[in-house]
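Lecture notes, continued. The same structure-token format from the folding unit now serves as the input rather than the output. Read the line below as a description of shape only.
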């Protein structure tokens, strides 16, 4: 599904926009750091924030990252978990791509199973 160029892009420091749908049907789009591993996009953050509330309610999310003419977008079913092992793994992946995040006892992780990938031609097989 993804090329070596795509995997290289996904290891570089790029932020993204997470889009979810709010209770009122409007799109809620916010900047996030994200990681991708084995068909799963992970986003860490604090329990109860709107992005996670929306993802839990709708069960879906989309993430798009852009760097000039290079871009990649993932969409699929999403779940939010506070499972300690899942959160620790997501933090480890985040630290490898971005930086070690601050300690956050309210941390959860959004896990999105990728159903669809869009992006620059060099990123798709």
């Amino acid at each position: 599904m993804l090329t070596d160029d795509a995997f290289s892009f996904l290891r570089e420091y790029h932020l993204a926009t997470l889009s979810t749908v709010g209770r009122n049907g409007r799109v809620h789009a916010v900047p996030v750091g994200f990681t991708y591993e084995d068909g799963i996009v992970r986003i860490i953050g604090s329990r109860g924030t709107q992005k996670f509330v929306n993802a839990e309610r709708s069960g879906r999310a989309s993430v798009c990252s852009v760097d000039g003419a290079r871009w990649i977008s993932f969409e699929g079913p999403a779940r939010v978990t506070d499972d300690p092992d899942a959160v620790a793994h997501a933090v480890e992946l985040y630290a490898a791509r971005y930086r070690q995040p601050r300690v956050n006892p309210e941390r959860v992780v959004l896990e999105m199973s990728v159903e669809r990938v869009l992006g620059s031609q060099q990123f798709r097989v």
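Point for the exam: The radius of gyration is 14 Å.
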